Amino acid sequence: MSFLARTTRRSEDRNQLAGHEIRQERRSDMAARERLLDAAFGAGRFAKTSERLREGRKPALGLAFVALRSWRLVGTLRLWPVTTATGHLCLLLGPLAVATDFRNRGIGVALMWQALHRARALGHRAVLLVGDPVYYSRFGFSAENTGALRMPGPYEPERLLACELVPEALKGACGMIAATRPRPPRLSRLKNRVACSGPAIGQPA
Ligand SMILES: CC(C)(COP(=O)(O)OP(=O)(O)OC[C@H]1O[C@@H](n2cnc3c(N)ncnc32)[C@H](O)[C@@H]1OP(=O)(O)O)[C@@H](O)C(=O)NCCC(=O)NCCS
Predict the structure, then answer these.
(1) Closest residue (by CA) to atom 46 of ligand 1?
(2) Cα dihedral sign for 164, 24, 137, 7?
(3) Ligand 1 centre from 135 Cα, in Å?
(4) Which residues' Cβ are closer than 6 Å to ligand 1?
(5) Given this model, what pLDDT does residue 43 score?
(6) What is the whole-number distance in angstroms between the Cα of residue 189 and the centre of ligand 1?
(7) Is the distance from CB of 72 to CB of 106 less than 8 angstroms?
(8) Average pLDDT, the chain
(9) pTM of the prediction?
(10) Atom of ligand 1 nearest to the CA of 104
(11) Atom number, ligand 1, closest to the C-alpha of residue 103
(12) How far, in Å, is the centroid of ligand 1 from the Cα of 187?
C-alpha cells in the first residue's frame, strides 16, 4: 500500500473516531459552503488570482468535498481542472476552509488526504495550489516544480505549490496556468458548427 493510500486509510479511521464525516459535495450544500467560505476568507476571496481559474466553471468531476459534523457543514475543499501552457493537465486545489469552531481537530488534514487520494484514483497526475508552504508541505506540496509556471494575475511565487501524484508528472511544465475549457453545451456546439460552415456575416468570403 502506498504512502498516500496508507495515510488516507489512517485519516478515514481518525475521521470516524473524531465524529466527522467527509463526503462528496451535493447541490444542497452550496449555501452552507458559501457561508463558510465568506466567514473564512471575507469579501476579498473573489479577488484572489486563483479565483480567475475557477469563476464560471465547475470543479473536477468527483472532486468537491464537504466535512460534516452532526449534519452541519464544517469544512469544504474543491479541486478544479487546469492546464499549463505546455499542456500538462493538472488540478488546482482550493479553497480549503474549516469552520472556526472546528479548527485544529484534523478536519483540514482529513479533507486534504481524501481529496488527494481520490484525485489519484481518478487518474489525475498533479495538483497545484496557492497557499502556505508550512501547512501544505505535510501533504507533499512544494515550490520545487512550479518556478517556471505562472498564474493569471498577482501571486507570491513561493506560495505556488505542486504535488505530483505520478512521478515526474510536471516534468517540463512551464508557462501560464489556465482553466481547462469546459465542453460547451450541445446547443452552442451546434450553433458553432453552423457558423463555421459558411463565411462569417460581414466578412469577405
Ligand atoms: C487552514 C485550515 C483549513 C486548517 O484546517 P484545520 O482543520 O484547522 O487543520 P487541521 O486540524 O487538519 O490541522 C491542524 C494543523 O495545521 C496547522 N495549521 C492550521 N492552519 C495553518 C496555517 N494557516 N498555516 C500553517 N499551519 C496551519 C496547525 O498548526 C496544525 O499543525 P500540527 O498538526 O502540526 O499541530 C483552517 O485553519 C482554515 O479554514 N483557515 C482559514 C482558511 C485558510 O486559510 N485556508 C487555507 C488557504 S491557503
Answers:
(1) 96
(2) negative
(3) 6
(4) 40, 96-98, 103-109, 131-132, 134-135
(5) 87
(6) 43
(7) no
(8) 87
(9) 0.84
(10) 11
(11) 8
(12) 44
Say which amino acid occupies 15. N
Set of cell numbers at residue 104? 485544529
106-135 tens-digit pLDDT: 999 999 999 999 999 999 999 999 999 999
> Cell 482550493 appears where?
94
Give the domain 3-196 fold.
Answer: Aminopeptidase (3.40.630)
- Contacts of 138-143 with C-beta under 8 Å, sequence gap 24+, read 138/109, 139/112, 139/113, 139/163, 140/116, 140/164
Q: Whose CA is nearest to atom 44 of ligand 1?
A: 97
Question: Which residues have C-beta within 8 Å of that of residue 198, sequence separation ≥ 6?
Answer: none
Residue for cell digits 457558423? 195
Q: Is the pLDDT of residue 203 over 90?
A: no
